[in-house]
Each structure stands twice: as structure tokens, then as C-alpha cells.
Amino acid sequence: MAKFTMGSNLIYGNIPFGMIGNLVNLNNLAMEDNLFTGNVPDVIGKLQNLQGLSLNGNDLSGPMPPLFGNLTSLTKLLMEENSFDGTIPSSIGNCYNLQTLNLSRNNLSGTIPIQVIGLSSLSISLDISYNSLTGPIPSEVGNLVNLMELDVSMNNFTGEIPSSIASCTSLEILHMEHNMFQGTISQPLKALRGLLEIDLSHNNFSGQIPSFLGTFSLKKLDLSFNDFEGEVPKEGIFTNTSALSILGNDKLCGGIPELLLPTCSKKLHSSGNLLALKVLIPAITAIILICIMFCCLVAYLMLQKSRTSTSIASSLEGLRSRVSYSELMKSTNGFSMENLIGSGSFGSVYKGLSGDGKVVAVKVLNLQQEGASKSFIDECKALTTIRHRNLLKIITLCSSVDLEGNDFKALVFEFMCNGSLDQWLHPTDDDKQPRAKSFSIVQRLNIAIDVASSLNYLHYHCQTPIVHCDLKPSNVLLDEDMTAHVGDFGLAKFLLEASSSAIPSSTSVGLKGSIGYIPPEYGTGGQVSILGDVYSYGILILEMFTGKRPTDDIFQDGLSLHKFVTMAFPKCIMDIVDPSLLIGGGENDDENGEVIREREIIKEDDTQTSARKREECLVAVMRVGLSCSNAESRERVTMDDVVNIMHAIRDSFLGLKNKNWRRIR
């Protein structure tokens, strides 16, 4: 027997070492994603023909056996997501054909053996993240000249990035976040021009951010929560605020205006300026005091006039201009029924035409509805402090009175010509576009990735984390390219207090959200947290790929959408997916390259292969949806992991290479 695969089952107990020890001709042993416990049997060291060993995703424990060093033919060793403890065996350095090594998400401690970090055969990935490893990164890392991905994040490493890493010129992904590294990053990274993704966040790096990073072809750069200082570059990745994070570096200045950093001040070098300083400092201090007194006086007067007006004004500092009631009336044809494109709990949305000829969406609040005014303030506050390609952009607002003298409040957004995700998932009989029939797997995957990216930004990349609180298909809008934009922040909450626990900050409020998408903990008086959004996202995923709303009539007597999918998962998943996904809709002139690629896969592959690929993809997606919508909030996966997983699922379905797979347990 050359290959023995028993992965992704529910097999439990110890690994049957008696049986495995006799399979001396094995070249591939795959036992991943089961429930195996106990130690790894030493007899595995006798399988010297093994090229691939996958024991990941179990609950194996104890130290890793040094006999791994006997497996000199190994090219892939996957041991992640177990409970191994102790140190990394230096004997792994004897596996001189090893290309991929993943020991992440265990309880390993101690330092990295130089025999392992210097194993020059590693060319695909070395992942030792989420352990308790200590000490500096050995200089032998410079031997990894062919390695594409290095992940040492979420450990207790110290010291500086070794200068020898400059020899790793094949690196594309470098993750070193959540350690205790220090020093500057200029010299070590300068030669790594092939890098596509860098995460150095939550360390103690200092010095200036090197400008040469702006010349790299980076898709992600996270330098947040370090001690960088000086001017932020203005080229390349530094112009893309959705792919860049520099939060928590209080000494930075300059950069593009969207970063909202202070202007860099020029240093005074000559001693002749000392006299000027002695005069300027008291003068500036006096001016500042006067300004503070003036601001306090203005604030007091405004507070006496209208507390609500003050709240609105302070929430809207980021908007360039405002629009009058008469202009909105004209642009929406008098708020006519012909221009009405939707309505919600706090108001109605109209299609309008702005002064420069652009089509816009005008959300008019129903101020008779209790809480509508607060919703207006909350939505303005949220939308004016965030900026992301997958969040609905606010253009301007109107806070005025109508023709009868009544208070009038409205928000003006970019118009999304392809409507909402809800309209695509559940088209009505009078819908002019045959939406559902042409709504492909890849389009749904792309939308799921867009929504996940927006939530990941709100949860982890805003100065103050934001919980959306009302994620559902009708609040996901689609532009002409079918790119998703999350909107309706009327219930959004800012998490003002950081938490040292594993669960980020939360705040206690009343029940928030829409029926079917509200996490169960909210209904029992639980606190609003980012994990509530994760639950809503999980339900959204299940709805997108089953075509069933969580409020469907079939869901009663204890049956929910989550339970409905769980009962079919994974063997009968194809029996419950949206039937339109099994048909393969007609061709469309507006299809993008990925949708065309999906169609080509279906045409090129035989019927059996095509069906297998489709089923594998849908099972993986449903696994994400079920994990996110787990009733236990602490068991839900976080959105940063979801983004990586959904990218991997899409790329795997399209036959593309992806190095960012982070599996859900």
C-alpha cells in the first residue's frame, strides 16, 4: 500500500500503531481532521518511504517524537492544530527533502532549533505560529532562500529581525505579528522585493517606516501597534488605506490625508532659534489657552441650545458639504413613488440625481419612529469615521426642515445599480432581471469575501472597533461590478473599552438586529460584541448558498437554518443547496474573469469531476457558515480568519494557488 487516507472523519482514540507500523511501503499517510488523541507512535519513524504526513486537526498530545528525523523522504509535514507540547525536535532538520512544515496552533515552547530554521529544502511554507516559542530568530533563517511563506506570529519571540533574512529573496508572505521583536526594519527587508504581504503588528519595532516599501507590490501591510516614528511614505501601498494599517504608532506624521495624521514639523537646527523659541512658547501657550476657553464657551452655548444638534454636528466633521432640502426634493422628483427604491424601520430610500449628474441614493429618516434621530446620529458617526472599499460611502447629508417646518434628516449615498443581495437571492415575480439564475458560485463567493473584509476592517482596523449589529442580505448592496458594499449603520455600536480577554470589548445594550440574524446571546441579555456580527455573517453565508431565509416557514418547532444545514452536513449538503447553483446559468456580457473561469472549469472537466469540485467548494463554505453561526460565541471563528479561509475556498475552486489557508476546526 502506497497511500493511506482517512482524513475528515469522526475517528477517535489512539492512532493504531500496530497496523501502521506494518505499512513500510507507504509514501503518503493522511489522518487529518479527526478526533485522534494520545501520543504519536514511534513506529511512524519506521515508514522511511513517507513523502507526505498529515496529522493536523486532531487532539494529539505529548512531545513530538524525535524519530521524525528518520523520515528523510518527507516533503510535507502537517502537525498543526493539536495539543503537542515540549520543544521542536531538532531531528526534523534531517528531513532534507522537506518543502512544507506546519507546526502551528500547538503548545510548543523553547527556542527554534537552528537545524529546523536553517533547513534549506523548505520552499513552500514554514508555519510555527500560535505557540509559546521564545528567544530570537536564529541567523540560519538566511538559508531559506527558496521559501515563499514564513509565519512565526503569535509567539514570544524577542530580539531583532536577523539581517540574514535578506537572503530569503523568494519570500512572498511574512507574518511576525504579536511577538516582542524590536529594532528597525529597514535593512532586513530591503532586499525582499517579492513580498506581497507583511504583518509586523503588535511588536516593539521602532525607527522610521522605510520608503522602499512603497515600491514593493504589496497587497497588505500591517505595522500597527509598534513604536514607529517620523513621516509616512506616500507611494504604493501607503496610498491604499484598506490594505494598510499603521494604528497605534503615536509618533507618525504626514502620509496621505486619508490617514488623518498630524503634519510633520520641521526641526530647528540653529542656536539662533533658541531666542525665538523663548518668545514663541509663551505666545503659543497663551493662544492655546484662549482657544480652549473659546471652545468651552461655544460648546456650552451649543449644549444649551440643543443637545441633539451638538451630537449630530460632532459626528459629521468628516463630510465635505451638506445639501439642502429643496435640492433633495428636486433630485428625487419630490420624493415620488417612482423614485422609491426601498424602505426600512427608520425611513425610506429614494433614487435621485445629484447636481453633477451622478445617480445617488437618498435615505430619508422617519423622525416619528422612536429612535430614528439617534439612528441618524449613530449612522453619521460610523460612516464619517471609516473608509473601506466594501462599505457604503456617504456623500453628504441634510439636517434641515421640510416645507411644513418639520424636522427633516437625510443621508445621501452612492447609488448601487445592482440592488441588494436580498434581491438576488430572493427575486420577486415582477423582478425584471432573472437574477437568481445567473447568480453563480464564484459571484456569491466574491460577495461573501467582500462582506467578510468589511467586517474584518470594522472589528480590527478601525481606531475604535465597530459592531454593525444589523448584517443581513438587504443591507449588502451591489455595484455595477457586483462588488458588495455593507450599508445601514443605524444600529452600529462603537466598542469604547479595550478588553484583555480573548473576546474583544463589548457593550451592554438592548436587543439589536433583525429577526433571524440576531445572535442567541443578545436575546438572553448578553453583551454586544464583534462575535455577534460573526454570527450574523454565518447566517448570511448559509442563506446565500441554500437560498433559504432564516425566517422561512419551514423553520419552526425547533428547526433553524443552522440546524437544517447541520443535519445535512457534509454528506447530504448537495440536497439542500440553492438549486440554481446546480444548473449553471446562462452567459452574461457583464461576467468578470473569475465567473468566466468558473464556466470554463465546468466545460473542461468531465461531469463527475465538475460535480466533485462544486461539492467540495460548497461543503467548505457551509463549514464556514456553521462555524460562524455557532450558538456558543466563544466557538465562533474570527473575521480575520474567515477572510483567509474564503479566499482559499474560492481560489481552490478556480484552481488557483493560495497560501493563506487557515482552517476552521
UniProtKB/TrEMBL annotation:
InterPro entries: Kinase-like_dom_sf, Leu-rich_rpt, LRR_dom_sf, Plant_receptor-like_S/T_kinase, Prot_kinase_dom, Protein_kinase_ATP_BS, Ser/Thr_kinase_AS. It catalyses: L-seryl-[protein] + ATP = O-phospho-L-seryl-[protein] + ADP + H(+); L-threonyl-[protein] + ATP = O-phospho-L-threonyl-[protein] + ADP + H(+). Residues 335-654 form the Protein kinase domain. Its EC number is 2.7.11.1. Its main location: membrane. ATP binds at K363. The chain crosses the membrane at residues 275-303. It is found in: Cell membrane. It is a single-pass membrane protein. GO terms for molecular function: ATP binding; protein serine/threonine kinase activity. Belongs to the RLP family. This is non-specific serine/threonine protein kinase. It comes from Camellia sinensis var. sinensis.
